[in-house]
Amino acid sequence: MSGTFVGMPAFPEAARTAVDDPTLRGNLRHATHTIRAKRASAVAELADWAELREAGRRIKDHTLRHLDRFLEQLEASVTAAGGTVHWAEDAEEANRIVAALVKETGESEVVKVKSMATQEIGLNEALQAEGIRAYETDLAELIVQLGKDRPSHILVPAIHRNRGEIRDIFTHEMAAWGRPAPEDLTDTPADLAEAARLHLREKFLRAKVGISGANFMVAETGTLVVVESEGNGRMCLTLPQTLISVVGIEKIVPTWRDLEVFLQTLPRSSTAERMNPYTSMWTGTSDEDGPRAFHLVLLDNGRTDTLADQIGRQALRCIRCSACLNVCPVYERAGGHAYGSVYPGPIGAILTPQLRGTASEIDASLPYASSLCGACYEVCPVAIDIPEVLVHLRERIVQGGPAVRHGNKVVLRPARGHAAERAAMRAAAWAFGHPGALRTGQRLAARSRRLHPRTLPGPGRAWSATRDLPAMPAEPFRDWWQRTHGGKDAK
Ligand code: SF4
Q1: What is the pTM of this model?
Q2: Most exposed of 85, 96, 129, 456 (fewest Cβ within 10 Å)?
């Protein structure tokens, strides 16, 4: 079973530990720089990239605006094609539904396609509690699962591991999960891939239940789409008799024509490929081929709350390409684990606090895990203005304090840590409303400037430890103006 993010410290503390790890920083730097350069050249091949990006943004915004209608259309299409649709308000309900469906089959193990939604709800852990073993079949997810680790990247969950570490994990852990690794396993990519292939093949051939997410759901036909590079997804989607897909409600697109846009932008933004090696699409069930039973679990888990926020809702356009992670200077140094969620990097910094609320220290710290350089916005294929949402969430936290989830509702509670900031703002508002007092204060400050401390005391110490306090001028601007402009007051 993979490790969980429960109980992790806030971002600054977790990031401090990560930046002290030279191996981790080396692994991340090498991987993110390689992917980002490849993506840039894959995107540069398309003369109409800007138009595709704008089309993706518009399609997603239109879909989110009419989400209720498209979800009902999807439900009708899936049902007509022989599938069964389940609605899950939160993680607990989704896990309960999936566990019950697996138990109905009489099976105690499942094979899984890589899926962010199932990680978000902690499905593997919930299934384990019910005596059901879930096998991850994506290579990077397998490494994370065998290493009892946590994912640190959306696309490459084991990006923080190098080849030597992966060989050690396979050598020591594979036997506990099935076919052991070869005794003479080397750390060459071909050997590692072959060891994983042999280990997984027996699971594919034995599995009666497959669990997936989906990259897209087409409302007009009830078709689900999974794009991947290894072929493990295709095996999980076609070999088992029962297929259960857990998908966030925002993954819907109205038509196949809309899908066409994302099948161009997603592979180039994520793996820098012109198209994915495997694009699997399925519509309900068929008597001739594939699973005989298909269940779609539609997951809310904070998405409708996010939809209610006019600025924050753009996070729901995300197609999980991970391009924003690969260009982010903060992610490159802090790594994915510091974000305390399955959604790391810039998208995690705006999505997690909206899905989970900001009641916990770590969730409230995420909107500050950014330098606001804007590189994430530049590369995003659906033009999510991540810096805008980050600033908006910071404002929400400062103004109203952390949001707290009560059932399916998120409410703001009074801030505690920002009382000093609010008091300072009130004092400034008073001073600007009383020009005489402001002038006296400015003169006093100018005359006493040699006595001013270079660092702030108390809680302000951390702020001033890495910044120089602005130097106070010898003469306030208004006095200088009066002296040099014949006694006229400065407006
Ligand atoms: S926010 Fe944009 S760039 Fe980042 S993962 Fe989502 S779609 Fe990709």
Answers
A1: 0.84
A2: 129
